[in-house]
Amino acid sequence: MTAMLLGDPAQTFQVNAETIIAQQFDPRRYPHRHLVIVGAGSPSWIDQTLRVMAAVEMLTTAGFELVSVAENEQAHLRYAVLRRSVPAA
């Protein structure tokens, strides 16, 4: 999956975990302080959770901090909300 399935991250404030893991998302170009990582594309709860947390880990090196983790069981999605600890360059 790519970020295009969720729309432009700068407009939607969200990006797919797979896009981050595949290094197709550049956090330096993201203009906002908050971002939602969406774990989708796998029916497995644990796979989605692992992918979301791997993406969170990758973005912590870019100045983001984990704020919250949530899930939508009906839609079978896992989310992580992050906040940039330093202003965007």
Automatic annotation (TrEMBL):
* Top-rank taxon, per record: Bacteria
The name of this protein is Uncharacterized protein
